Amino acid sequence: MLILIAGPYRSGTNDDPVLMQQNLSNLEALALPLFKKGHVPVIGEWLALPLIKLAGSASTGDEIWNEIQYPCAHRLLEKCDAILRIEGASQGADNDVKIGRERGLKIYFNIDEVPDAE
Predict the structure, then answer these.
(1) Which of 77, 75, 15 is nearest to 51 (CA)?
(2) CA–CA separation, 42 vs 106, rounded Å?
(3) Phi then psi for 3, rounded to 5 degrees?
(4) Distance between CA 27 and CA 17 in Å, rounded?
(5) pTM above the 0.90 mark?
(6) Residue 13 and which of 2, 21, 27, 93 are 20 to 30 A apart at CA?
(7) So what's the pLDDT on residue 118?
(8) What CA–CA distance (Å, rounded) separates 18 from 111?
């Protein structure tokens, strides 16, 4: 399965780049375990952040950032089979889960719930 790892990125950071990187590291910590289960992990920021930079965003939350960050994840969800929602308050991740449920994706809240690939 192609599995989106969703959780806090910007939430709770007051846009502090160090805290945002810590949140990204928390998301990334689950990528290798998912891969070892036989799946393809993906994180929206892996795709959005380079695009945001290329588009010329000057700061987190500016018009360019908002134009790309969440729409990128929503487009990515069209290709995903499942979502792994990690702990932590995040409106963006909660919205990903809402969209995923509407699309009939499998939603996991713990890596142990994710089955090994067949």
Answers:
(1) 75
(2) 15
(3) -120, 120
(4) 15
(5) yes
(6) 2
(7) 81
(8) 25
Q: Is 118 inside a domain boundary?
A: no
How many domains would you assign to the chain?
1
Residue 74 lies in a domain: yes
In this structure, is the dihedral angle defined by the CA atoms of residues 29, 75, 10 and 87, taken in order, positive or negative? Answer: negative
Q: Provide, for the chain, the percentages of residues in helix, strand and coil under a 3-state DSSP scheme, each rounded to the nearest 5.
A: 50, 15, 35
CATH number at residue 30: 3.40.50.10400
CB 97 within 8 A of CB 85: yes
| Domain membership flag for residue 86 | yes
CB within 8 Å of 88: residues ≥ 6 apart: 7, 8, 11, 12, 23, 26
**Which two structure tokens, joined as six digits, stand for 12?**
């709770």
Which residue type sits at 83? I
- Count of all residues that appear for the chain in the document: 118
| Boundaries of domain holding 48 | 2-113
The two three-digit tokens of residue 59, written as one number:
């700061």
